[in-house]
Design brief:
The protein is about 35% helix and about 25% strand. By secondary structure, it is α/β, with parallel strands linked by helices. The protein has one domain: P-loop containing nucleotide triphosphate hydrolases (Rossmann fold, 3-Layer(aba) Sandwich), CATH 3.40.50.300. It has a six-stranded mixed sheet with strand order 6-7-8-3-9-10, with helices on both faces. Strands 2-1-4-5 form a four-stranded antiparallel sheet, with helices on one face.
């Protein structure tokens, strides 16, 4: 059995008198496509934000690749092999599609516009753009992309670091069925190449055919864990999420 790549232990976050995440604990094993699902307001994105350093946890611990991460910082985690996307794609709209990937490789704006990008990184960016069928758009400002294309570009950008673990926050939200199929294909291809995924997703059909295992949150804490078949018949899940 594969080892544990990410371990979340008793993470807690309160906003005033509201407990958004309540001693949440779970593991992500290397080589899996793990889903983190739950009803709106169950704490999924808050957990993502704490894991990746965009939000400070009130208590709890995080371990990545057998090392404790006491103060997660997005840039440090990115360099160590843990990267993420967001519900609303975060890109640089004023930069070209290719420049967005180059910036993701760790270049400063001065290096980017001073033409000091290495040939290797430029070639890697082009390879990823070809993989995502975005090469014909490489010189366009990212602002000109459709909503779905922006999501693809953000996904492509996180791959510039050769990540071991990618956290995808609602990768198919708001996109058409063709783009959903495209996103699923890229996830499967990268998974086959050795990338582990933790995915927050509301499309249950996608989750059930793509992810194993599935973690279900309700009111900030896990209530079920297991295969898609096990989770979708769990009475607690049916009550809290699937039956709502």
């Amino acid at each position: 059995m594969s080892g544990v790549l990410l371990e979340v232990d008793h993470l807690t976050k309160r906003f005033g008198g509201v407990t958004a995440v309540d001693e949440c604990s779970f593991e992500v094993r290397e080589g899996t496509i793990t889903a983190l699902i739950g009803p709106n307001g169950s704490g999924k994105t808050t957990v993502f934000n704490m894991i990746t350093g965009y939000l400070k946890a009130d208590s709890g611990t995080i371990r990545f690749d057998n090392q404790s991460i006491p103060r997660p910082k997005p840039a440090d985690l990115y360099r160590r092999g843990l990267s993420r996307t967001f519900q609303q794609a975060r890109i640089f709209p004023e930069l070209t599609v290719e420049e967005n990937l180059v910036v993701a490789a760790g270049y400063t704006w001065r290096q980017l516009f001073g033409a000091r990008v290495t040939t290797g990184d430029a070639e890697r960016a082009q390879r990823i753009l070809r993989e995502f069928k975005l090469e014909r758009l490489s010189t366009l400002p990212a602002a000109d992309l459709s909503y779905g294309q922006r999501k693809l570009l953000e996904f492509a950008a996180v791959l510039m670091s050769d990540p071991r673990l990618v956290l995808l926050d609602e990768p198919t939200a708001g996109v058409n069925p063709v783009m959903i199929d495209t996103m699923e294909r890229h996830i499967r291809e990268r998974h086959a190449a050795g990338v582990t995924f933790l995915i927050v997703e509301h499309d249950m059909q996608l989750v059930m055919r793509l992810c194993d295992p599935v973690i279900v949150l309700d009111q900030g804490a896990p209530i079920a864990f297991g295969s898609p078949e096990t989770v979708q018949t769990d009475p607690r899940v049916l009550e809290a999420y699937l039956g709502s």
